[in-house]
Specification:
It contains 31 helices and 40 strands. By secondary structure, it is α/β, with parallel strands linked by helices.
Length: about 1050
């Protein structure tokens, strides 16, 4: 019989169902150390095992089919458990974590923290015999090969699910499919303007195969020739990592409530859908297996016998615990506020209330749109590569255009494990990667000869955008102008924002590159994007429509709400997925949406073409792809229709086409994966085989130092956005105007980007650390009235509204399956609520909603919400850190929660926490406008360079509060328990690294201002005694700044 081992639990090794009562247990973290528990009395002929849950208040016996163990977490728990065991027919043996010594103590009562193993027999007569024999049970050590002192329970062991319920999901079943909801009929839509001859519907792609020898852990392996394989690999690996996460949301033995018997509509409660754990939308599919319950026990019927080795399941018998049918139900309603779904489920049995196992799925449309975009772009790139190779092989003229995509990409191909065969002259090249992509039922043939297509640089716009080169840029011949000719819709725009708008409108950076707008927190990215849209939409020289996208619905709605003041419903469309509910859309935007048959849909072609601006999410732009209204599709229909009507007019095929989608602008572009951004890119990309009168505009605004898209695989580059990948390209990263480098001399290319550096959100003290860490000390604080909270007593007399509050409380684990982690810290939560109450009691802040509390762990968020409700703090914003990206709050309290270093490695693997997560750190710190409090254990946080920099900033400027609580017993002996002993010098001594302190310009200026109030230095006072000129004032300021920096470094 195979030996199954689960780390951190006592696990049976060789259980024989008809043998004498005995069980061998292994503690897997100690290798071959075994504990044998034997009963000398006669046993019955069969044995079954039962479990009691860890919560004594809700103990429920469940047949398992194997031994189990539970953790005694407190003396009170132990007492209650023992009392309940006495009233049951359970035989208990105490299994203590033991040492390597052969002298094993007798099984006395366990201390707190020990594990308790218990078993039960099915025959009542045997229960009494085992009770009498309990004192005779003696543990005996068999072998020991390593020291057991370091053994600890594994808190990451998945939550227990009874075998009788879990086995039902694995049993064979007949599939009953509930009809899906009616979405957009794209076949019908296409036929309304293209018939069936010129365009056909987009079909689903076959599932790609994983290319084993193509690594995807570094963007160095990505080239045009392997583009599809690279991102197919990323997608496949991410889906593989996502499956266990989705499976962890499965529910077992949950009741359904009948809503409509005739239409077979049921209500199902789903905890967590409010925070998209799991993510469920209208039209999604969910799997149901209806249980057949035993009326006496309330458990699935007949599972004990069926699970017995050698009996039911092992002999191929049908599972008796459910109806034998798996129902693919369809979601027809989503109520996130009440965490409930409406399901249409065909095939449930009545009259009893259906109790089901519920399984969640990765939805096919979620994946199809990404695969389609990857395939579309790869096909365009392969056409460019093929024409380039053909051109290189056939041309001999030195004056012909040269392409710069050769040696370095061939080197990447070689490094990636692909062969790239070259001829002796270097002209004839071919790759081993096939580019045969046929994702549509009909491929339109190019009416142009290859030579014409390959000589037009316009036809390779998509390639140039994704893989730019300096030759695509425009030379800068004059100095930038400070005078702009536009009439601004928003008159409060600053110089950098106006520069970005003017650059995109004039395209002074060239027509073959994307334009990037780097926007750190609070610098007005969205404001700039909206002005850009309005200037283009009202420019008579701009021909065509604008596709405006963002990664999420809230971000997209924000764009629509800001633009509606200037664009009416006849000029702007808010395009929604049919799966979105009306309640999710802001009321002000509903007039801008198109609704058909009570669902969101796409307008008829004549109406769609009349809109100047279409706003949608990157993923929902796939509706335009499926409707075949992309630039390539529209041009293809136009050309082929003309060629059909006028077959003798060949010149019509050579006429330059006009693009309908003339611009793509993406806000918060750093939050989308590259395949997500490809979806709207495939809408605006011009046809490779036709000449176009102009190229579309691509502009993206974002911040690569804030959160990426949420992905699941930790070892691929799938999380890297197109915005971030391009920002690292030399044409963007090496420009002398980039904040990363100031080297270079004129002449230079016109920079295809703008840095927004003026922050209108936060106090200078809050900006000091992120400005130095992430933005090369380039931020300028433009916010006003940020000193209004300085009267709060919590600042301890310091005029800077930043505080680090040490927390020596221990971190506890609730449910590790929870997305974001099931960790909480009671002392930390209590402190956060205490700070909140203090702010309100002192009337420093009057509105609860002006305070925000965040934590990276969901369990801590739940605990904070409970404490807030108990304190009647109903309006305080409490949530996970990811939920606050793009938002701001007057006062922010950050609960870091983690208190023990030994869990950091697992946090990193699971993507939990905020330590060694620089982007999470940046987002958390920069949400605050006027006040910031950070709660945490400095010993744990100091492992992260970002947190160490922040704590050093707080420590040297006396923005520090020690913990006045008692040491937690579970922290005894740990360095982390002595939070008040921490200092930056102590961390440097422990690590052996003595780096110079990172001091930002904001910090130096604040210190300078503070010292001036105290009289300043002798040099300053000398200049302050008399009147001084502007030049003298600048000199004085420089002297003082130099003195401050020298004193701070020493």
């Amino acid at each position: 019989m195979s030996k199954k081992t689960t780390r951190g639990n006592y696990v049976p090794l060789d259980r024989q169902p008809s043998a004498a009562f005995s069980a061998d247990f292994q503690i897997p973290s100690r290798g071959k150390s075994l504990l044998k528990i034997t009963n000398p009395s006669e046993s019955g002929s069969s044995t079954s095992y039962h479990l009691r849950t860890e919560n004594p208040a809700s103990v429920e016996s469940l047949n398992m089919g194997k031994d189990v163990s539970m953790h005694v977490s407190s003396a009170a728990d132990e007492s209650r458990i023992k009392s309940e065991l006495k009233s049951s027919n359970l035989n208990v043996s105490w299994a203590k974590p033991y040492s390597a010594s052969p002298q094993v103590p007798s099984p006395a009562r366990p201390t707190v923290g020990e594990r308790m193993c218990f078993n039960q027999h099915t025959e009542p007569a045997y229960h009494g015999a085992m009770k009498e024999a309990l004192p005779a049970l003696k543990p005996t050590m068999l072998t020991s090969q390593e020291n057991s002192q370091d053994w600890r329970p594994d808190v990451y062991v998945p939550a227990f699910v009874p075998e009788s319920l879990r086995a039902i999901n694995d049993a064979p079943a007949d599939l009953v499919i509930t009809p899906p909801v009616n979405g957009v009929d794209f076949v019908k839509y296409i036929s309304t303007f293209a018939g069936t001859h010129f365009l056909s519907a987009v079909h689903r792609l076959p599932n790609p195969n994983l290319v084993e020898d193509l690594p995807v852990d570094s963007l160095d392996h990505l080239v045009t020739q392997n583009y599809r394989h690279y991102f197919d690999n990323c997608l496949l690996l991410d889906l593989e990592a996502q499956r266990p996460v989705v499976k962890s949301y499965d529910l077992f033995g949950v009741p359904l409530q009948l809503i409509d018997h005739e239409q077979e509509i049921y209500l199902l409660k789903i905890p967590g859908i409010k925070e998209e754990t799991p993510l469920v939308d209208f039209g999604d599919s969910i799997m149901l297996r209806q249980l057949i319950l035993d009326q006496a026990t309330g458990l699935p019927r007949g599972m004990d016998l069926w699970l017995t080795p050698g009996v039911g399941r092992d002999r191929g018998a049908l599972c008796p615990g459910f109806t034998g049918v798996q129902i693919r139900a369809t979601v027809v309603g989503v109520d996130k506020r009440n965490e409930a779904l409406l399901l249409k489920a065909k095939g449930l049995l009545w009259p009893s209330i259906p109790v089901c196992n519920v399984s969640f799925l990765i939805q096919a449309p979620f994946v199809d749109s990404l695969q389609r975009a990857i395939a579309d772009v790869s096909q365009e790139l392969s056409l460019r590569t093929t024409s380039e190779m053909h051109y290189k092989a056939t041309t001999v003229s030195a004056t012909e255009p040269q392409y710069d995509l050769q040696e370095d990409e061939m080197q990447k191909l070689g490094d990636s494990g692909y062969t790239f065969n070259r001829g002796s002259t270097g002209h004839s090249q071919q790759t081993s990667i096939s580019a045969n992509i046929d994702h549509r039922s009909q491929v339109e043939a190019s009416p142009l000869p290859l030579a014409l297509a390959e000589r037009s640089s316009r036809n390779h716009w998509l390639h140039n955008v994704l893989f730019p080169s300096k030759s695509n840029g425009a030379q800068q011949k004059t100095l930038p102008s400070v005078v702009f000719r536009q009439t601004w819709f928003d008159t409060s725009l600053n110089y950098e924002q106006k520069t970005a708008v003017d650059a995109v409108q004039s395209r002074n950076y060239g027509s073959l590159l994307g334009f990037l707008i780097y926007g750190p927190p609070g610098t007005g990215k969205t404001k700039t994007v909206c002005e850009m849209v309005l200037q283009l939409a009202n420019d008579p020289k701009f021909k065509g429509s604008i596709l405006l996208c963002a990664p999420s619905n809230p971000a997209t709605d924000t764009l629509g709400l800001r633009l509606r003041a200037h664009l009416g419903p006849e000029r702007m469309l808010r395009l929604n997925a049919y799966s979105r509910t009306f309640a999710e859309v802001p009321q002000e935007l509903l007039p801008y949406c198109f609704v058909e048959d009570n669902i969101f849909s796409i307008p008829p072609l004549p109406i769609l073409m009349a809109y100047k601006v279409v706003i949608t999410t990157c993923r929902d732009a796939d509706a335009l792809v499926q409707a075949r209204v992309t630039n390539r599709d529209l041009i293809s229909v136009q050309k082929r229709l003309a060629a059909t009507i006028h077959p003798d007019e060949a010149r019509l095929a050579d006429t330059a086409a006009t693009l309908h989608w003339a611009a793509l602008i993406v806000d918060e572009a750093a939050q989308a994966t590259e395949p997500e951004t490809l979806i709207p890119l495939t809408v605006v990309a011009p046809h490779t085989s036709y000449t176009c009168s102009s190229n579309p505009i691509l502009a993206m605004a974002g911040d690569e130092h804030q959160l990426n898209a949420r992905t699941y695989h930790r070892s691929t580059t799938f999380h890297v956005s197109l915005f971030e990948r391009l920002s690292k390209h030399p044409i963007y990263a090496s420009s002398r105007f980039a904040h990363r480098s100031f080297r270079g001399t004129a002449p230079a290319i016109q920079p295809p980007f703008v840095n927004l550096i003026r922050n209108y959100r936060s106090h200078r003290a809050i900006l000091a650390v992120p400005s130095a860490l992430f933005y090369a000390n380039s931020l300028i604080a433009e916010s006003t009235d940020t000193d209004t909270l300085q009267i709060w007593s919590g600042w301890r007399g310091r005029p800077w509204p930043v505080l680090f509050s040490c927390n020596g409380g221990v971190d506890d684990c609730e449910d590790i399956r929870a997305v974001g982690g099931g960790w909480y810290n009671k002392r930390e939560a209590g402190k956060a609520i205490a700070y909140t109450r203090s702010l309100l009691a002192e009337k420093v802040i009057l509105e609860h909603s002006e305070i925000c509390i965040m934590s990276p762990f969901r369990a801590q968020v739940n605990l904070l919400r409970k404490y807030a409700r108990d304190s009647e703090l109903w309006g305080v914003n409490i949530g996970p850190m990811e939920a606050f990206q793009g938002l701001e709050s007057r006062f922010v309290i950050i609960c870091t929660t983690r208190a023990r270093q030994r869990f950091l490695e697992e946090d990193k693997l699971r993507g939990n926490g905020i330590i060694n997560e620089a982007k999470k750190f940046n987002v958390a710190i920069t949400r605050a406008k006027e006040g910031l409090v950070v709660l945490g254990n400095p010993w744990v946080l100091a492992i992260d360079p970002c947190w160490l920099t922040l704590m050093a900033f707080c420590h040297r400027n006396s923005l520090w509060s020690e913990d006045d609580g008692e040491e937690d017993a579970r922290m005894h002996g740990l360095e982390e328990a002595k939070v008040n002993d921490w200092s930056p010098a102590q961390t440097s001594a422990n690590s052996g690294v003595h780096d110079e302190p990172l001091i930002s310009g904001f910090e130096a200026a604040l210190v300078y201002k503070e010292r001036n109030k105290e009289g300043g230095s002798q040099a300053v006072r000398r200049f302050m005694n008399g009147s001084e000129s502007l030049e003298e004032a600048l000199w004085r300021t420089g002297l003082e700044a130099e003195e401050i920096l020298e004193s701070m470094e020493t």
